[in-house]
Specification:
- A three-stranded antiparallel beta sheet has the order 1-2-3, covered by helices on one side.
- The termini are far apart.
- A hairpin with a 5-residue loop joins strand 2 and strand 3 (29-32).
- The chain has one helix and three strands.
- It is globular.
- The protein is α+β, with helices and mostly antiparallel strands.
Length: 56
């Protein structure tokens, strides 16, 4: 029996581009052209989810 964590990661491809748009389970969003960079960002949660100047 597998346990569900309730964490949902979503990556969408933006048609007509090489850009991926990712949404982490915490609601943070990120874009990248490299799929490995996208998953590294998501799986590094919460490190890297702060935006410059947002006070977090």
């Amino acid at each position: 029996m597998s346990r569900r964590t309730g964490e949902v990661y979503r990556v969408d491809w933006l048609p007509g581009t090489d850009v991926l748009h990712g949404t982490c389970h915490c609601g943070a969003e990120h874009t990248a052209e490299d799929p490995v960079a996208m998953w590294d960002w998501m799986l590094a949660h919460p490190r890297g989810h702060e935006l410059p100047g947002d006070g977090s």
